[in-house]
Amino acid sequence: MTSPDLDRGHIPSSAWKRLQNRALSDRRWSAYTLWAGIVIILLISVISFGAPLFGFTEPNQTDLLNTLAPPSWEHPFGTDDLGRDVLTRVVYAGRVDLTFGIITTYVSLFIGLFIGALAGYFGGLFDTIVMRLVDLVISFPFIVLILAIAAIVGPGLTGAYIGVLVVSWALYARLTRGEMLAMREKQYIMNAQTLGYSTWRIIFIHSIPNLLRSNLVFSMSDIVLNILTLAALSYLGLGVAPPTAEWGEIIAQGQKHLFTAWWISTLPGLIIVLVGVGFSLVGDGLADRLGEHGGGA
Amino acid sequence: MSILTYISKRLAQAIPVLLIISLFAFSIIHLVPGDPVHVMLGSHASEESIATLRNQLGLDKPLTTQYVEFLTKAIGLDFGSSLFLRAPVGPIVVERAKNSASLLIYAVIVSLSIAVPLAMLAAVRRNRLPDHLVRIFTTVAFAMPAFWTALLLVLIFSLRLKLFPTSGLGQGFPDRILSLTLPAITVGFYLAPVLLRSLRASLTETLSAEFVEAARARGLSEGRVLFKHVLRNSLIAMITVLGVNIGFLISGAVVVENVFAIPGLGSLMVSSVISRDYPVVVALILVFGVAVVFVNLLVDLSYAVLDPRIRL
Q: Residue A267 has what pLDDT?
């Protein structure tokens, strides 16, 4: 990596050297966070989707002679009240949670991207109506909205998918619309208009690829939020139902043994945190790389 | 513009939003696949009880009549009767709203006392060790599920140290504060990373503003610059960040109320969804919606009071 090529002006050479080093170490730091995040996510995904290859055979294998066993070499996360190995359940639960996080996030990213791009490009009444709706969805407590959807669809994984999709497109739409407003005034978009390109071509070929960037950065923290939402719903008894292993479900099942068998509810949480940190690191690294800063929440 | 015209203008803007929320709440029961009355009463209900409930819910009338009746009743806080609690919904909601409100206020205090000092530390020592440590804290705290944090706190402070009750609400003010402490810490901790991120950004911006430079140039002490000039100017940012995240805050509280079995609106919402008690679900959506609109209104009004430029 070469040092940033800037006008040195009247900065003394010793200070300049320091600045260069600082800039270089910042670059390196952001590369580390990106790769650390990717490694964490890949590791957990590979283990959970390839579970049998790593010796995790059956998440619902009960062993009634070995119930509520504390963590040991054989059962690193201990066993639950049916003698099931908690780590095996956590590994299999990863399939449900990671799939949920990624599908809900990227489906809503594309819905939001599309709606936001149209609203920003065309403006007018469509823009006003869409943005009013977006403001409403964003300011409403998302759990309440998702619970309302669960009341309509009925509890279960389908309800959770629909609920999260209904909520999370809105942030992407707002983000995209704001960028589209600025982009509409850019020279290359105006050139495309002057060349007589169709509106669809301008939106899909010339705008959307550029709008993807900040959406991708934001999507990393959205995956975390969506996984946490599924876990919370299952914890509340409205998401994935037992005996299917899911992170929130495992923690909920362990709660009644919190005092006697603390490991059932506490250790799986560490994996959720690890996954969340992994995605956040990827998001931070991408933000530094792409020179973008993801939205709040 | 006088402040009164400003208030009435903002109130008028809130009306269409409230109408959309009411329309959504109203349509829930109609969106249920199949017959909602069958869903509510189960498959063994007699024809007679089905007809009675349908009549009670007004489902046998035309849609527009139903909606108008629903609106007029809702304004008078009449949400019909809960099927499972066998009591009118209005008073139950009012009683439980008090508990939720206490939790939310307590949680905001906790959250600000975590987020504000850490954000200041991070902004002042930007890109140094304290900033990195704060960033690590933010990343980890953001990934922690609220119900899991709650269980950790219960395990340590209730079960081992026996400092706080594990669940429920005690009688009398001191007891209530004691039983709301762990829930408030959980919700506060859930909200803190989100507040911290935005506050750090706005404080960093304020610190590089010209008036801060001017204050330093006049020879004011760094502490005075920080607490008198920077923090005061970040007050608006703080209120904005809180206002924007009110939905996030309430979401956290809904989950946490269930962990600690606090008789609030969140635990009522979850139990009503599970038992398919539609009158309660509908009432709660309205209540949450109105609460959010009201808080946003308060946030806007506080701008107008704090910063006269906004009224222009």
A: 96
What are the 10-residue block averages of pLDDT along chain B, 312 residues in total?
78 87 89 80 80 80 85 84 83 92 96 94 89 93 96 92 84 86 96 93 86 84 82 82 91 96 95 90 93 88 75 56
Q: What is the pLDDT of residue A255?
A: 93
CB B234 within 8 A of CB B246: no
Across chain B, mean pLDDT equals 87
Q: By the CB < 8 Å criterion, does A262 face chain B?
A: yes
Give this complex's ipTM.
Answer: 0.90
Q: Say if the Cβ atoms of A265 and B148 lie within 8 Å.
A: yes
Q: pLDDT tens across A91-134, in order?
A: 999 999 999 999 999 999 999 999 999 999 999 999 999 998 99
Q: To the nearest whole angstrom, how far is the Cα of B83 from the nearest Cα of chain A? A: 15
DSSP string, A128-171: HHHHHHHHHHHHS-HHHHHHHHHHHH-SSHHHHHHHHHHHHHHH
Interface of A with B in 96-135 (CB under 8 A): 132-133
- Return the closest-CA partner of residue A159 out of A39, A239, A94, A56: A239
Of A140, A147, A274, the CB nearest to B270: A147
Residue A146: both structure tokens together: 């998702």
Mark yes or no for CB contact B151/A26 under 8 Å: no
> What single-letter amino acid sits at A224?
V
CA B227 vs CA A112, B109, B207, B231: distances in Å:
41, 19, 11, 5
